[in-house]
Every structure is written in structure tokens, then in C-alpha cells.
Amino acid sequence: MPITVSIVEDNEQLRETLARVLNRADGFECVGQHASAEAALAGIPTERPSAVLMDINLPGMNGVECVRQLKQLLPQTQVVMLTAYEDTENIFSSLAAGASGYLLKRSKSAEILEALRDVQNGGSPMSTHIARKVVQSFQASNRPTAAAAPATQPTEELSPREQEVLDLLSQGFMYKEISDKLGIGFETVRTYIRRIYEKLHVRTRTEAVAKVLRR
């Protein structure tokens, strides 16, 4: 079954370009295009896509509020933000609203397609620059104090290879980039990440990164 995707983007040229990219890629199908949040909320529940590419700066209701309402209607649909905004407020507002990933519009087509595959497998894809902002934010809020450190570190039970994968994941590397960097297969990377999530008792990249930063 293809990964079905709806697009919410007010820039007509970009919206149509994204639709072409999806329809030409193996394993994808664009099932809807919407120029506003209001149109998306009316149309996407009928389209029932696997995933949504969501802009933030939309006419009328913004993309963050659209995500919040859309997730109430379709909780199983994964939302990936695709926006020019890279400030922490928009990043965390989007994630808190229910988005599973956050990409910048300058991302390459291959990165967008990989991100959509990633969210279907329980991942939380982010552009490298965005992931680093998330890391910096966690670092700022989780700096060690004089209080006692936890008796056991949350990543102690990971194997050396799983630790390598997790470190790269926390730096914002995509699955394919981790595969190339470590010289292992793409599916092997997925297996490692699934084991990491299980061992750390997390479900997303963001939660895994938080565990890394509390070591």
C-alpha cells in the first residue's frame, strides 16, 4: 500500500511541486492539496491520508492550530511540519500540538520522502538544524545541578552500536545518513532504532534525545 499524503500549503507553486514529487515517487500518493487550514480540516477527514505535510504560516487559522484540531479528528494520521520557521517556539508548539516531525522548506525532496517513511515507522524526523535546536533547548533545561544524579544512566543498557546510532540520531541525522556513516544497511538502522526505543521506553526521536541529554 502506498503512503498517502495530503498537503496543506498556501503557496500554489510549492504545493503543486510537492504533489508532483509525491506522485512520481515509488510508494507514495498525494491524495489532497489544501491552501488553508480551514480547507484542510474540511477535506482531510474524507481523504484519510497516512500523513500530512503542514505549513505554519497559512491565511486564517495557522498550521499549528490546524494540527491540533486535525489530530483530534484523525489521531492515527501523522503530521510533518514543512515550514520556513525555525524558531524554538514554533518547533515546540507544533510538536505539542501533535506533529510527529519538523522539516524546513529548504529540505531536499529525498529528505521529505524519507521523513514521510520515517513517521510511518514510528520515527520523529527533523531537519538537522531543527534537531540541534531541540538538543540545545533540552540542554538548557536539563543542565546538571548539585543534586544527586540518577543512580543508573538511562542509556547504560544500550549496546555500543546502539549508542552510536542514538548519538547520530540525536544530532539530527536521517536514517539513510546513519546507514552511510556507519556502513550498515538501511533496514539494520531501523532495527537498531526500534530496539533503542524499546530499551529507553520511548516512541519518538525527541523523547530519545531527551534521554541522551540526561546522561
Architecture overview:
There is one protein chain. With 215 residues, the protein is α/β, with parallel strands linked by helices. It folds into 2 domains: 3-133, Rossmann fold (3-Layer(aba) Sandwich); 151-213, Arc Repressor Mutant, subunit A (Orthogonal Bundle), CATH 1.10.10. It contains 10 helices and 5 strands. The chain has helices at 12-24, 37-47, 63-73, 88-97, 109-120, 128-141, 160-170, 175-182, 186-200, 205-213, and strands at residues 3-8, 28-34, 51-54, 78-83, 101-104. The chain has a 5-stranded parallel β-sheet, with helices on both faces. Strand 3, helix 3 and strand 4 form a beta-alpha-beta unit. It is globular and about 50 Å long. The model is unreliable at 145-152 (pLDDT under 50).
Observed structural traits:
215 residues; alpha/beta; Rossmann fold; Arc Repressor Mutant, subunit A; 2 domains; five-stranded parallel beta sheet; 10 helices; globular
Write the topology of this structure.
Elements: E1 3-8, H1 12-24, E2 28-34, H2 37-47, E3 51-54, H3 63-73, E4 78-83, H4 88-97, E5 101-104, H5 109-120, H6 128-141, H7 160-170, H8 175-182, H9 186-200, H10 205-213
Parallel strand pairs: 1-2, 1-3, 3-4, 4-5
Helix pairs in contact: 2-3, 3-4, 6-10, 7-9, 7-10, 8-9
The quaternary organization reads as single chain
- Rounded to the nearest angstrom, the radius of gyration is 18 Å
Arithmetic mean of pLDDT: 84
Largest sheet: 5 strands, parallel
Global structural class:
alpha/beta
Report the β-strand fraction as a percent range.
Answer: 5-15%
CATH topology annotation of the largest domain: Rossmann fold
Termini, distance in Å?
A: 40 Å
Strand count: 5
N to C succession of SSEs: EHEHEHEHEHHHHHH
Shape: globular
- CATH architecture identity of the largest domain: 3-Layer(aba) Sandwich
